[in-house]
Protein backbone atom coordinates (compact mmCIF):
# COMPACT_ATOMS: atom_id res chain seq x y z
CA UNK A 1 0.00 0.00 0.00
CA UNK A 2 1.17 3.49 -0.74
CA UNK A 3 -0.17 6.56 0.99
CA UNK A 4 2.34 9.19 -0.14
CA UNK A 5 0.73 11.37 -2.80
CA UNK A 6 -2.41 9.31 -3.37
CA UNK A 7 -3.58 11.37 -6.35
CA UNK A 8 -0.36 11.01 -8.32
CA UNK A 9 -0.20 7.25 -7.79
CA UNK A 10 -3.79 6.73 -8.89
CA UNK A 11 -3.65 9.09 -11.84
CA UNK A 12 -0.39 7.77 -13.23
CA UNK A 13 -2.13 4.54 -14.26
CA UNK A 14 -4.90 6.06 -16.43
CA UNK A 15 -2.52 8.69 -17.81
CA UNK A 16 -0.05 5.97 -18.75
CA UNK A 17 -2.85 4.06 -20.46
CA UNK A 18 -4.29 7.12 -22.23
CA UNK A 19 -0.80 7.96 -23.54
CA UNK A 20 -0.61 4.30 -24.68
CA UNK A 21 2.63 3.65 -22.78
CA UNK A 22 1.05 1.00 -20.46
CA UNK A 23 4.10 0.70 -18.23
CA UNK A 24 2.66 1.42 -14.76
CA UNK A 25 1.41 -1.49 -12.60
CA UNK A 26 -2.38 -1.35 -11.97
CA UNK A 27 -3.36 0.81 -8.97
CA UNK A 28 -6.64 1.36 -7.12
CA UNK A 29 -7.60 3.80 -4.37
CA UNK A 30 -8.89 2.51 -1.03
CA UNK A 31 -9.81 3.80 2.43
CA UNK A 32 -7.70 1.69 4.77
CA UNK A 33 -8.02 1.01 8.48
CA UNK A 34 -4.40 1.26 9.63
CA UNK A 35 -5.10 -0.65 12.86
CA UNK A 36 -7.11 -3.62 11.62
CA UNK A 37 -5.76 -3.93 8.10
CA UNK A 38 -2.07 -3.17 8.63
CA UNK A 39 -0.77 -3.06 12.21
CA UNK A 40 -2.76 -6.01 13.60
CA UNK A 41 -2.14 -8.33 10.65
CA UNK A 42 1.43 -7.61 9.58
CA UNK A 43 4.07 -10.28 10.13
CA UNK A 44 6.82 -7.79 9.46
CA UNK A 45 8.21 -6.99 12.90
CA UNK A 46 10.29 -4.08 11.59
CA UNK A 47 7.18 -2.47 10.14
CA UNK A 48 5.14 -3.17 13.28
CA UNK A 49 7.72 -1.39 15.45
CA UNK A 50 7.30 1.84 13.46
CA UNK A 51 3.65 2.27 14.51
CA UNK A 52 2.93 4.82 17.23
CA UNK A 53 0.17 7.08 18.56
CA UNK A 54 0.62 10.78 17.80
CA UNK A 55 -0.01 13.62 20.32
CA UNK A 56 -3.32 14.17 18.47
CA UNK A 57 -4.22 10.53 19.28
CA UNK A 58 -3.95 9.36 15.68
CA UNK A 59 -2.40 6.06 14.61
CA UNK A 60 0.84 6.63 12.64
CA UNK A 61 3.66 4.63 11.09
CA UNK A 62 6.77 5.40 9.04
CA UNK A 63 7.96 2.04 7.68
CA UNK A 64 11.43 1.00 6.53
CA UNK A 65 13.32 2.83 3.76
CA UNK A 66 16.57 4.60 2.94
CA UNK A 67 15.11 8.11 3.02
CA UNK A 68 12.54 9.95 5.13
CA UNK A 69 11.50 6.94 7.23
CA UNK A 70 11.27 8.56 10.65
CA UNK A 71 8.69 9.94 13.05
CA UNK A 72 9.14 13.36 11.42
CA UNK A 73 7.85 11.94 8.11
CA UNK A 74 5.24 9.53 9.44
CA UNK A 75 1.88 8.76 7.83
CA UNK A 76 -1.05 9.27 10.18
CA UNK A 77 -4.70 8.30 10.05
CA UNK A 78 -7.82 10.11 11.30
CA UNK A 79 -7.71 8.52 13.85
CA UNK A 80 -6.70 5.31 12.04
CA UNK A 81 -8.43 5.72 8.65
CA UNK A 82 -6.22 6.74 5.74
CA UNK A 83 -6.64 7.06 2.00
CA UNK A 84 -4.10 4.96 0.13
CA UNK A 85 -3.33 3.41 -3.22
CA UNK A 86 -2.96 -0.33 -3.67
CA UNK A 87 -0.70 -1.40 -6.53
CA UNK A 88 -0.62 -4.84 -8.14
CA UNK A 89 2.64 -6.65 -7.46
CA UNK A 90 5.07 -7.16 -10.31
CA UNK A 91 6.35 -10.74 -10.76
CA UNK A 92 8.44 -11.86 -7.80
CA UNK A 93 12.10 -10.85 -8.08
CA UNK A 94 13.00 -14.55 -8.06
CA UNK A 95 10.95 -15.03 -11.23
CA UNK A 96 11.66 -11.77 -13.03
CA UNK A 97 14.70 -9.87 -11.78
CA UNK A 98 14.70 -6.15 -12.42
CA UNK A 99 17.66 -3.94 -13.17
CA UNK A 100 17.93 -0.37 -11.90
CA UNK A 101 19.44 2.23 -14.23
CA UNK A 102 20.60 5.71 -13.34
CA UNK A 103 18.67 8.31 -15.32
CA UNK A 104 21.15 10.20 -17.55
CA UNK A 105 19.23 13.38 -16.74
CA UNK A 106 19.28 12.84 -12.98
CA UNK A 107 19.29 16.04 -10.90
CA UNK A 108 22.38 16.95 -8.91
CA UNK A 109 20.54 18.33 -5.83
CA UNK A 110 23.72 20.26 -5.04
CA UNK A 111 23.65 23.94 -4.12
CA UNK A 112 26.69 24.82 -6.24
CA UNK A 113 27.52 21.87 -8.52
CA UNK A 114 25.16 21.43 -11.47
CA UNK A 115 24.56 18.22 -13.38
CA UNK A 116 26.29 17.91 -16.77
CA UNK A 117 23.01 18.15 -18.69
CA UNK A 118 22.31 21.50 -17.02
CA UNK A 119 25.46 23.14 -18.44
CA UNK A 120 26.02 21.29 -21.74
CA UNK A 121 23.30 21.86 -24.38
CA UNK A 122 24.84 19.04 -26.48
CA UNK A 123 24.74 16.55 -23.60
CA UNK A 124 22.38 14.23 -25.50
CA UNK A 125 25.05 13.59 -28.15
CA UNK A 126 27.20 12.07 -25.41
CA UNK A 127 24.30 9.98 -24.11
CA UNK A 128 23.53 8.63 -27.58
CA UNK A 129 27.06 7.23 -27.85
CA UNK A 130 26.79 5.40 -24.52
CA UNK A 131 25.21 1.93 -24.06
CA UNK A 132 22.32 1.16 -23.80
CA UNK A 133 21.29 4.39 -25.57
CA UNK A 134 23.45 3.82 -28.65
CA UNK A 135 21.13 1.15 -30.09
CA UNK A 136 17.61 -0.17 -29.80
CA UNK A 137 14.72 1.84 -28.41
CA UNK A 138 16.03 2.85 -24.98
CA UNK A 139 16.53 6.52 -25.86
CA UNK A 140 12.99 6.69 -27.23
CA UNK A 141 11.77 5.09 -23.99
CA UNK A 142 13.48 7.89 -22.07
CA UNK A 143 11.70 10.46 -24.26
CA UNK A 144 8.34 8.83 -23.50
CA UNK A 145 9.14 8.83 -19.79
CA UNK A 146 10.19 12.49 -19.99
CA UNK A 147 6.85 13.48 -21.52
CA UNK A 148 5.04 11.35 -18.95
CA UNK A 149 6.86 13.08 -16.06
CA UNK A 150 6.44 16.59 -17.48
CA UNK A 151 2.67 16.24 -17.81
CA UNK A 152 2.50 15.39 -14.08
CA UNK A 153 5.25 17.73 -12.90
CA UNK A 154 7.35 14.84 -11.55
CA UNK A 155 10.93 16.08 -10.98
CA UNK A 156 12.05 13.03 -9.00
CA UNK A 157 13.08 10.54 -11.70
CA UNK A 158 16.51 9.58 -10.34
CA UNK A 159 16.43 6.03 -11.68
CA UNK A 160 14.29 3.72 -13.75
CA UNK A 161 13.90 -0.05 -13.96
CA UNK A 162 13.77 -2.74 -16.62
CA UNK A 163 13.32 -6.51 -16.60
CA UNK A 164 16.85 -7.93 -16.52
CA UNK A 165 16.09 -11.04 -18.58
CA UNK A 166 15.46 -9.16 -21.81
CA UNK A 167 18.64 -7.07 -21.79
CA UNK A 168 18.29 -4.06 -24.07
CA UNK A 169 15.28 -5.58 -25.84
CA UNK A 170 12.94 -4.42 -23.14
CA UNK A 171 10.99 -1.38 -21.96
CA UNK A 172 11.16 0.99 -19.02
CA UNK A 173 8.89 0.25 -16.04
CA UNK A 174 7.38 3.48 -14.71
CA UNK A 175 7.69 2.99 -10.94
CA UNK A 176 7.96 5.49 -8.07
CA UNK A 177 5.86 8.35 -9.44
CA UNK A 178 5.04 9.75 -6.01
CA UNK A 179 6.34 13.29 -6.52
CA UNK A 180 3.92 14.18 -9.30
CA UNK A 181 1.08 16.72 -9.11
CA UNK A 182 2.68 19.17 -6.74
CA UNK A 183 2.17 22.71 -8.07
CA UNK A 184 -0.58 22.96 -10.65
CA UNK A 185 0.32 26.58 -11.43
CA UNK A 186 3.98 25.88 -12.22
CA UNK A 187 5.30 24.07 -15.31
CA UNK A 188 8.80 22.78 -14.51
CA UNK A 189 10.48 23.12 -17.89
CA UNK A 190 13.69 21.44 -16.71
CA UNK A 191 11.82 18.11 -16.74
CA UNK A 192 11.49 18.51 -20.51
CA UNK A 193 15.24 19.02 -21.09
CA UNK A 194 15.90 15.45 -22.39
CA UNK A 195 13.31 15.93 -25.13
CA UNK A 196 14.59 19.41 -26.01
CA UNK A 197 18.23 18.31 -26.13
CA UNK A 198 17.68 15.07 -28.03
CA UNK A 199 14.82 16.16 -30.31
CA UNK A 200 13.62 12.59 -30.67
CA UNK A 201 10.18 11.00 -30.29
CA UNK A 202 8.27 7.95 -31.48
CA UNK A 203 5.77 8.60 -34.25
CA UNK A 204 3.11 6.76 -32.23
CA UNK A 205 3.75 9.06 -29.25
CA UNK A 206 3.70 12.18 -31.40
CA UNK A 207 0.40 11.20 -33.02
CA UNK A 208 -1.14 10.36 -29.64
CA UNK A 209 -0.13 13.74 -28.20
CA UNK A 210 -1.60 15.54 -31.20
CA UNK A 211 -4.84 13.60 -30.77
CA UNK A 212 -5.07 14.42 -27.05
CA UNK A 213 -4.66 18.13 -27.86
CA UNK A 214 -7.88 18.09 -29.91
CA UNK A 215 -11.03 19.35 -28.21
CA UNK A 216 -12.97 16.15 -28.89
CA UNK A 217 -10.23 13.96 -27.30
CA UNK A 218 -9.03 16.41 -24.67
CA UNK A 219 -6.52 14.91 -22.24
CA UNK A 220 -8.07 16.47 -19.13
CA UNK A 221 -11.54 15.18 -20.01
CA UNK A 222 -10.31 11.66 -20.68
CA UNK A 223 -8.33 11.70 -17.42
CA UNK A 224 -11.34 12.81 -15.38
CA UNK A 225 -13.55 10.17 -16.99
CA UNK A 226 -11.00 7.42 -16.44
CA UNK A 227 -10.94 8.01 -12.67
CA UNK A 228 -14.67 8.19 -12.01
CA UNK A 229 -14.81 4.46 -11.27
CA UNK A 230 -12.29 4.64 -8.45
CA UNK A 231 -13.71 4.38 -4.91
CA UNK A 232 -11.96 7.60 -3.87
CA UNK A 233 -13.14 9.71 -6.81
CA UNK A 234 -12.54 12.62 -7.28
CA UNK A 235 -8.78 12.09 -7.32
CA UNK A 236 -7.59 15.36 -8.90
CA UNK A 237 -9.10 18.82 -8.73
CA UNK A 238 -9.79 20.61 -12.01
CA UNK A 239 -6.75 22.91 -11.87
CA UNK A 240 -4.44 19.89 -12.03
CA UNK A 241 -6.36 18.52 -15.01
CA UNK A 242 -6.14 21.90 -16.74
CA UNK A 243 -2.40 21.96 -16.07
CA UNK A 244 -2.03 18.70 -18.01
CA UNK A 245 -3.67 20.28 -21.07
CA UNK A 246 -1.37 23.29 -20.77
CA UNK A 247 1.74 21.11 -20.45
CA UNK A 248 0.66 18.98 -23.38
CA UNK A 249 0.69 22.08 -25.56
CA UNK A 250 4.20 22.89 -24.28
CA UNK A 251 5.40 19.41 -25.26
CA UNK A 252 3.95 19.80 -28.75
CA UNK A 253 5.52 23.24 -29.06
CA UNK A 254 8.92 21.80 -28.11
CA UNK A 255 8.57 19.05 -30.71
CA UNK A 256 7.46 21.57 -33.33
CA UNK A 257 10.60 23.63 -32.67
CA UNK A 258 12.72 20.47 -32.94
CA UNK A 259 11.13 19.60 -36.29
CA UNK A 260 11.70 23.14 -37.59
CA UNK A 261 15.36 22.94 -36.53
CA UNK A 262 16.30 19.33 -37.33
CA UNK A 263 13.70 18.13 -39.83
CA UNK A 264 10.77 15.75 -39.38
CA UNK A 265 12.66 12.62 -40.49
CA UNK A 266 15.32 13.15 -37.83
CA UNK A 267 12.99 14.00 -34.95
CA UNK A 268 10.11 11.55 -35.47
CA UNK A 269 11.06 7.87 -35.42
CA UNK A 270 8.53 5.75 -37.36
CA UNK A 271 7.70 2.86 -35.04
CA UNK A 272 4.45 2.02 -36.84
CA UNK A 273 6.02 -0.03 -39.66
CA UNK A 274 7.48 -3.03 -37.87
CA UNK A 275 9.85 -3.40 -34.93
CA UNK A 276 12.95 -1.27 -34.75
CA UNK A 277 14.97 -4.14 -33.30
CA UNK A 278 17.81 -4.18 -30.79
CA UNK A 279 20.42 -3.19 -33.33
CA UNK A 280 18.55 -0.21 -34.72
CA UNK A 281 20.43 3.09 -34.78
CA UNK A 282 18.67 6.21 -35.98
CA UNK A 283 20.34 7.46 -39.15
CA UNK A 284 18.07 10.22 -40.40
CA UNK A 285 19.63 13.47 -41.59
CA UNK A 286 20.33 16.16 -39.02
CA UNK A 287 20.36 19.85 -39.83
CA UNK A 288 23.05 22.07 -38.38
State the total count of DSSP E strands: 9
Low-confidence segments, given as residue ranges, are 1-12
Task: Give the helices and strands as they follow along the chain.
Answer: HEHHEEEEEHHHEHEHHHHE
Class from secondary-structure proportions: alpha+beta
How many helical stretches?
11
Helix percentage range: 25-40%
Please, what is the average pLDDT? 85
Largest beta-sheet characterization: 3 strands, antiparallel
Radius of gyration: 21 Å
Tell me the fraction of residues in β-strands, as a range: 5-15%
N/C terminus separation: 50 Å
Strand line-up across the major sheet: 2-3-4
Shape from CA axes? Answer: globular
Subcellular location: Golgi apparatus
Pfam families: Fam20C
Keywords: Disulfide bond, Glycoprotein, Golgi apparatus, Kinase, Serine/threonine-protein kinase, Transferase
Protein name: Extracellular serine/threonine protein kinase fam20c
Protein described:
GO terms for molecular function: protein serine/threonine kinase activity. Residues 51-267 form the FAM20 C-terminal domain. It is found in: Golgi apparatus. Belongs to the FAM20 family. Its main location: Golgi. By secondary structure, this protein is α+β, with helices and mostly antiparallel strands. The protein has eleven helices and nine strands. It has helices at residues 6-18, 35-39, 45-48, 116-119, 123-127, 138-152, 193-198, 203-212, 219-226, 238-262, 264-267; strands at residues 27-33, 52-53, 59-61, 75-76, 81-87, 98-102, 159-163, 201-202, 268-269. A three-stranded antiparallel sheet has the order 2-3-4, with no helix packed on it. It has a two-stranded antiparallel sheet with strand order 1-5. Strand 2 (52-53) and strand 3 form a beta hairpin. Helix 8 packs across helix 10. The termini are far apart. The model is unreliable at 1-12 (pLDDT under 50).
Amino acid sequence: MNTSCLSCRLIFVPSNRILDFRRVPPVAGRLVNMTKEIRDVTRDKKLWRTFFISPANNVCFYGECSYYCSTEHALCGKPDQIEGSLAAFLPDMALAKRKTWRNPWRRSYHKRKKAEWEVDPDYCEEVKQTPPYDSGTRLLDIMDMTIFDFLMGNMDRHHYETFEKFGNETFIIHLDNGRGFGKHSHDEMSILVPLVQCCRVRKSTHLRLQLLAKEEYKLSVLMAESMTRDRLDPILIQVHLDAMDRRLRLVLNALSECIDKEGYSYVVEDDLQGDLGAGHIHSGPRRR
